[in-house]
Amino acid sequence: MTGTPEDPTQMPTAHRVALLSRDDRLFHLILAQQLDRELIQDLCRLAEMIRSVAEVRPGTQFLRTLLGHKRAMLYFIQPSTRTFLSFTAACQVLGMPYNDVRSQSTSSEVKGETEDDTIRVLSQYFDLIIMRHPEEGFAEQMAHMMNRMRRSIPLINGGSGKDQHPTQALLDIYTLYRSLGFGPNERPKPDFASNPFEGKTIAFVGDLKRGRTVRSLAYLLCRYPGVRMLFVSHPDLQIEEDILDYIEENNVDHELHNDLRAVISRCDAVYMTRLQDEYDTAGESKSIDYDSYRLSHEMAGDFKPNLVIMHPLPRRNEIDKRLDNDPRARYWDQVRNGMWMRAALIATIFNVDARIIDHYHSYYAH
Ligand code: NCD
């Protein structure tokens, strides 16, 4: 399919984005570019409400009544712990039964069934497919295929090769809303209508060429005027032109660097990532000294007092373990925030967001 003129994944972004919505509402979530500022803020606000509602038993019980009549399929044929468990936890929060396929070796694909057919079959049993796949563009192609089917169900991209990871980007933005501008030990009450990124410097560090979490988050940050992005990497692993073009089109300040030590004192947030060597074709990243893209304990003297330290995890040694107990380390918070954000996303796709908002206001607002 790829490369033919009628292939929607090759169309200009605005067309691609339009094809993924239904009646102006989010239907499939495949690309971070689908998320405008208003939608990002609505999702963050809803995630925050779900989090409060779930604090008490009647709230938990209410949430579980919302999607008991729907079923989700997690088609995760690329390794995953967090994203997989985070989505299953989100389904459980909303009372949504789910099933999973985690390896092609246990599916009829070993009998020669194409992946397209597998997805078509799954769409007959389930009401939502959440997909992690090693190939860029595959989730998007499947979303377009869904659009042509009589029974068409939404598809969420839980990571598409080196390309995108939009739900991680959402949870990262949500984490930043809860962290930027707050002291590390404060209990945040974020204002999701504000722009906490104004005048803030966010550094992305590591394998930016193949790190899909960075790519998706860079798209979302372009929605926030006044942010500055620093891309800190070895020249062979720097962020790709397509992202830089998008950043430039959006007039966002950015800089390319290769020395973390030289910029760390300027950062309000630092987003560390691991080497994505599973995408090496001939061991090309073996010669790179990745230690230069490591946040060491010795650098802590240069940190701003309210630095936000992030990592999508899994971590190798990009962050010194001695920083784990520093209150500025937010990577464990990111994990939990992901569960609430994914619940917010699923609730929005199935149009039960208004019910959660009503419930929240009737119990919690004064
Ligand atoms: C990331 C991913 O899968 O892209 N992990 C995650 O979803 N939290 C990052 C990675 O694997 O390095």
Condensed summary:
The chain has 366 residues and is of the alpha/beta class. The chain has 12 helices and 11 strands.
Topology:
Elements: H1 13-19, E1 21-22, E2 25-26, H2 37-53, H3 57-64, E3 72-76, H4 82-93, E4 98-101, H5 115-125, E5 128-133, H6 138-147, E6 155-160, H7 166-179, E7 201-205, H8 212-221, E8 228-232, H9 241-249, E9 253-257, H10 260-263, E10 269-272, E11 308-310, H11 331-349, H12 353-364
Parallel strand pairs: 3-4, 3-5, 5-6, 7-8, 7-10, 8-9, 10-11
Antiparallel strand pairs: 1-2
Helix pairs in contact: 2-7, 2-11, 2-12, 4-11, 7-8, 7-11
The structure holds N-carbamoyl-L-aspartate.
Give a written overview of the molecule:
The structure is a single chain. This protein is of the alpha/beta class and 366 residues long. It contains 12 helices and 11 strands. The chain has helices at 13-19, 37-53, 57-64, 82-93, 115-125, 138-147, 166-179, 212-221, 241-249, 260-263, 331-349, 353-364, and strands at 21-22, 25-26, 72-76, 98-101, 128-133, 155-160, 201-205, 228-232, 253-257, 269-272, 308-310. Strands 9-8-7-10-11 form a 5-stranded parallel sheet, covered by helices on one side. Strands 4-3-5-6 form a 4-stranded parallel sheet, with helices on both faces. It has a two-stranded antiparallel ribbon with strand order 1-2. Helix 2 (37-53) crosses helix 11 (331-349), helix 4 (82-93) crosses helix 11 (331-349) and helix 7 packs across helix 8 (212-221). It starts with 12 loop residues before the first helix and ends with a helix. It binds N-carbamoyl-L-aspartate. N-carbamoyl-L-aspartate is lined by residues 82-83, 159, 165, 168, 212-213, 273-274, 312-314.
